[in-house]
Write a structure and sequence with these properties.
This protein is about 70% helix and about 0% strand. The protein has 3 helices and no strands.
Length: about 60
Amino acid sequence: MKIFDKIALALVIIGAINWLLIGLFSFNLVDTIFGVMSVISRIVYILVGISGLWCIKALFTTND
């Protein structure tokens, strides 16, 4: 894997864990760490979203 792919995958995993915590416990880890909709938390959300879009390409690529 390329380094950018690994970073994107890590951010997607962080986002998935955050959603798991929200779903199970109504606990938003990103907001707790960085503040509710602070500039930093918004940047985290944007990076996670972009990473999710980037990881879509994994559905269409093969590991030959």
